[in-house]
User: Fold these one by one.
Assistant:
Number 1:
Amino acid sequence: MKQTHSYGEKVGQFVAVLLPIFITQLSLIATGFCNTVMAGHISEMDLAGVAVGVNIFMPFFGATLGIISGLTPIIAQYYGAGKSQAIRYTVQQGFYWALALAVLFLAIGYAGMPVLLPYLDLEPHVAYITSHYLMAVSCGIVPIFLAAVVRNFIDAHGYTRLTMGITMCTVPVNIALNYIFMYGKFGMPAFGGIGAGIGSALAFTLNLVLNVTVALTLHPFRDYHIFRNLPQPRFRAWRRHLGVGVPIGATMFTEQSIFGAVGLFMTTYGTAVVAAHQAAMNFTTIVYMIPLSISMALTILVGYEVGARRMRDARQYIRLGRVLSLVFVSAIALPLTRHQAWLASLYASAPELQSLICTFLVYVIFMQMSDCINAPLQGALRGYKDVRVTFWLAVVSNWVVGLPLGWVMAQYGGMGPYGYWIGLIGGILVGGIFLMFRLRRVEKKFDAIV
């Protein structure tokens, strides 16, 4: 990254950072899309089993990766200020506490799953697929958490094309491995939905190998020597780094866990509704990659400009990101109204299930228009390292407004499973309003400091 002096230069640098992030996120979500499609064409139970497993796994997995992503604004601000030694030390300490998070993650998972699953009242075969999918994917937790430290180190320097290349190498391997283990190709037994967990764990390990290779061999990352002369773990540094990362992770958990909770509430409506809901949620996640990528780009660019004390430039990037989010999501989400049946046919073969998916897809449109307002504001605030208030705003908008509203609409509003989607959309909109007011206050605070 470099200092820009005109709005045109900012557009160019924004796109240069954004495009690789978007391709990376789209490649990552392609794995989930293919898993959902492959599981849906094996059986309804395989799709439901993978869906329940994903709804349990992703809130905790995404939240922990969110904690590690706190390294991005920290390193970006150090980079803007030219503090290379601080960057090296931050990354090295990040390896230690990321490994500790991985151990904690696995301990909670293996202790909690036998307690949680009986409460879900799943059909026995669905419960079997869910539990074994989670056990399989857990084998890749340590590699992917360590890889996340290196990935954030690379991204914070603006070299998002490198992490894009790593992802584009990893994802096709992941999809191929999932296909082999799910369908039993090349002499392997057919594991069904469980095979998706096996393939993902192997791909996570490959991701670590590729990230480490980049850090060891390419300039400027090799010049930091992050794997040499590792210092002792310093809990004071952990506390400082986690002070940024934990609120980010907690915010992601708050957001993702509400989707997981809604997915679990869907189990009371039967296996077909669970499968249809998961298909629609899978598609909305694909579209969400646009505002999410813009959010991640804003974190990097705003962090870089704030570190260099260029507050006017930071605000210009924020305005640009918000406009692009609205334009891009509108261009993709609105044509969805004409292609619902075709999309539903990708996820399932049974006509009854396709009909359910089409109904859920109507709500996808409104959810994405809400997300394109909310996500860029979050990324901008993370660039300022303003993360604690953002977390509490996420709690209020999702768990105080969104989920209760969804429950009331489902139970008393005659909306059934669709009522929960109304709640999700309402919570996102309320969160966007809160974040707009918070961003204005933070911008004024930093202007006064400078």
Note: Residues 442 and 448 are 10 Å apart (CA to CA).
Number 2:
Amino acid sequence: MRYKYTDYHVHTRWSSDIPKNGPNFEDYLLIAESNHINVCFLEHYELYYVKNDKNHPFYDGKIDIYLEEIDKIKETYNFALSGLEIDYYIGMEKDILEFLDDYGECIDFIAGSIHECDIKYPITERNYIIDLLKKKPIKEIIDDYFNSTKEMINSKIFKNICHIDTIFRYININDIKPTDNCDISDKRILDIGLLCINNNISIEYNLSGLRYSLNRPFPSKEIITNLKKKGGNIFVGSDSHDLNYFQDSILKIKEAYQYLNNIK
């Protein structure tokens, strides 16, 4: 790659939660070039919806079009990486592995993540959490997330894992408040990180949490410091979904790497 630092988590219109008229590769790369930072386009690849939702950007084999487009753009911008943020679902491990067998070697960077334990109820969307709370208590929602995360790590399908505690984007003391019986401790998050380390899985330091009521990265600076000291391999991502946020995040991305590199 051309530059010293890389933002490993950027989304374009190829991601399902961005409008079709949203930013494309070159929109980001022009900004990245002027700020001397590499970009990995870590597009959402939710296998359940790729198979069942005709409106999903990757529906009906469009992964081939994505790879063709990004390979062409890489001919001009040698600081661009192709990537996928693949959702993990318990019970769909075989399907994920089959996809990776077919396409894993064609993609520069792949990371696993969990956005929903209950299909059609993403925990990264506040209104869906509210709806899900009508079906199950908040403790169960949190426990399901951490149990699914452990299953994902132990499956060893992925070499990289995104935002290991993103469940707390909206479920936190400043927004949707957990009940007293919920385990929201730093130890629980740290244990997930240590499980990644024990399985030789890289952990994302996701800066997007600074946009939300919790006002901290996923995981926190304290936890990521602890994990780095214990030998964790860390990559940094802005989780950008628009150009303005990406522009504003570049300095923070560089500062995060500088901080991590100084940890002994």
Note: Residues 26 and 73 are 8 Å apart (CA to CA).
Number 3:
Amino acid sequence: MGRPFYSHEQMSRALELHVRGVGLTQIRDRVSKGQASPSLRTIGYWIRRFRALSLQELRLDQTIEWHLLDTYGLPWEASRLILRLCRNGLPSKRRARWWWRLSVAKPELPDDVLLDMADTCVVYQHMSILGTGVPDWSKVWDQIRKDENGKDGTSVQYHCLPEKYALCEFPSEVVLPDWIGGSGFISITQTSDRISVICEQDPIPSGDIEDIKIVRGWYCIRSYSDKWPRIGGTKNLVVSTGDSVYILLQARDRKHLGEILGNTGITFSS
């Protein structure tokens, strides 16, 4: 006889799919991971366990209805967070609750980290209600409590954007060209005599462009707070967007950038 389940993550995902009305074969296909695919017999065993849960627990794994947020114990302010994070459709009530709780506990969490932590919390809750193991909640707490360098406290976190950037200065009356764009960070500042644009470097035509001053070779560091360090030894620009600060530094390459940041004690994720 095979094992009753292959992984807590697979069983957790299967529970969500079951509550949403997905059939046995489809559940098996959607939770399969290469050779670690549960059999239909195993999925059937899981479903029998799911059906033994209370209706109150099962309802938490139903998809949220945005106009009923307050009935799930979520404030209306949570709708903005949910809209930002729901990349693959609306989440379950249980998952939406964890998104909100974690964002309140540590507002500076990057979205990808928050999503991963919420996934872990959902799996842990499913382990508890199904009786399939003892979750280690201390791992989640440690992520909330520690900064990205592994130290206690609320130190500022930094993320190095993958693109290189350029600073472009246009006459104030110009219509901005189509090559200003991209999916990354863009800053446009207009004064009485010029328009300054910080944008991705790659889409900009090579060489000099008439009436446009272009300074290339900037790296962009995002700070997930309203604080940033003093960085000497190179030119730098700072742009605040309200919830984050973007620090642009001139460097020859990433190795040089690391040397510059090494003088500040900053480590960053790439």
Note: The chain has a mean pLDDT of 83.
